[in-house]
Amino acid sequence: MLKKLRSEVAHFNSQPHNFRILVMTNIVYAFVLPVIDIFVAAYVMRSSNDPTKVVIYQLTIYTGIPLTFLLNGFLLKHFNIRKLYSAGMLLSGVSMMIMMSLKTLSLTGIGVAGITMGMSFGFYWANRDYLALAITHDGNRNYYYGLETFFYTIIAVVIPVAIGWFIESWAGAAGAHTAYLIITGLVFLVTILASIVCFRGTFSNPVQKQYVFFKFHPLWYKLLFLALLKGLAQGFLVTAPAMLIMLLLGKEGALGTAQSIGAIIAAVLMYIIGRISGPAHRLRIFAGGLILFAIAALFNGILYNEVGVVLFMLFLLLAKPLMDLAYFPIQFSVIDILSKKENRGEFAYILNHEAGLYVGRFLGAATFLILAYGFSVEIALRYAIIIIAVLQLSSIYVAKVIMRERVEIMKETAPKEEEKLMAI
C-alpha cells in the first residue's frame, strides 16, 4: 500500500509545475466551496424559511456569472490572470460578509449578495477553466479531474460535518448567527491562502485578445446544447440539498452528516477512475453519472422524507463527480480542435460556453419557481428534480454525437495524434 502511495505521489510530482500549482490552489479553495454551496443557502433558508428566496438567491448568482465572464475577458487585456483568479476567490468571502450584514433578508439584499457571489464564481471559473485547458492535454485531463474530485470529495466529508455541528453548538438564533459570522471570517482567510498559492504559478494570459464571436462551427452548437442540459440541474441543484434537509431533517448538523455519507467511497472511486481511464471511456463515465442522478431524483420524489433525502445525497455524491469528470474533458477536447480549426483563442469558447450554461440554469431555476408558485414548494422540491433528471438523460446521446463528430474532424486534421489519444 505504501509503495502504491509513493507511486501516485511520484506520478503527481512528474506533472508540470503549473499543473501542480493549479491543483493545490483549487484544493485549498475547496475548503470554501461546501460553505458557499450548502451553508449560505441554509442560512437563507434558516433566516427566511422561504425556499423560493433560496432559488432567487441562486438565480442572481447565475446571472452574475456570465456577466463577469464577459468582464473577465476585457480585464485579461490589462491584468495578469493570477490577479483575476485570486479576485474571484476573495469575492466569495466578501459576498458572505454582505449576506451576514443584512438585518432582514429582503429580495434587494439577497440580490446584491447573489450578484457579488456570481461575480466571484465568474472570475474564479472563467480563469480556472482557461488555466485547466491551457496546462493539460487530452491524455491527462481524466487524471486532472479525477485528482481534483478525490480531494474535493474528501473535503466534502470533513467540512459539512464540522461546520454543521459547529453551528448547532451555538444556542438560539443569535448564537447561530454568531457561528455564521465566525465561519465567514474563516472563509475569507482561506481565500487569502488560496490566492497566495495561486501566485506561486507562472500562469500566462490568453494570447488572442478577441473573445466575443457569434458564429461557430456546427459542432460547437451541439456542445452548447449539452451545456444547456448540464445547466438545467445547476439551476437549483446546488441549493436543493440544503432546502430538502432543512425542511425534512431540520438542522445544519444533519445537513453536514448527510453530505458525508458515502463521500469517502466516492472520493477513492473518482481518483481510480480518473487515474486509469482515458478519452475512450468518457461517454460511459458520463452516462453512469446521469443514470445515478436520475435514480437520486426518483428516490427523493417518491419518498420525500428523511430516508429519501439521505438516499438522494448518497447517489448525488457519486453522480455529480462522475458527470463532471467526463464533461470537462469532453468540453476541452472540443475547444482544442475547434480553436485550431477556426483560428480563435480558447477563452472565446470558454466565454461562449457560459452562455449555454446560463440558459440551462435559468430554465432549471424557472422550473422550480413555476412549480412552487403554481402549485406548492413540496411539489417543486419533489418533481422539479425528476423532470430535470429525465431531460438530462438525453445528454448521453448528445455527448455521443459530439464525441463522434469530434473524432471525424480530428482524423481530417491530425489522425495520428487522435489515434494515439483514443488508445490511452
Report what the structure shows:
With 424 residues, the protein is mostly helical. It has a single domain (2-201, 214-422), classed as MFS general substrate transporter like domains (Growth Hormone, Chain: A, Up-down Bundle). Helix content is 83%, strand content 0%. It has helices at residues 2-13, 17-29, 33-48, 51-75, 81-101, 107-135, 141-168, 172-198, 218-237, 240-248, 252-260, 263-276, 282-303, 306-341, 346-374, 377-392, 395-413, 415-422. The longest helix is centred in the last third of the chain and has 36 residues, at 306-341. The chain starts with a helix and ends with a helix. Residues 420-424 have low confidence and may be disordered.
Provide the descriptors you would attach to this structure in a database record.
globular, mainly alpha, 83% helix, Growth Hormone, Chain: A, disordered C terminus
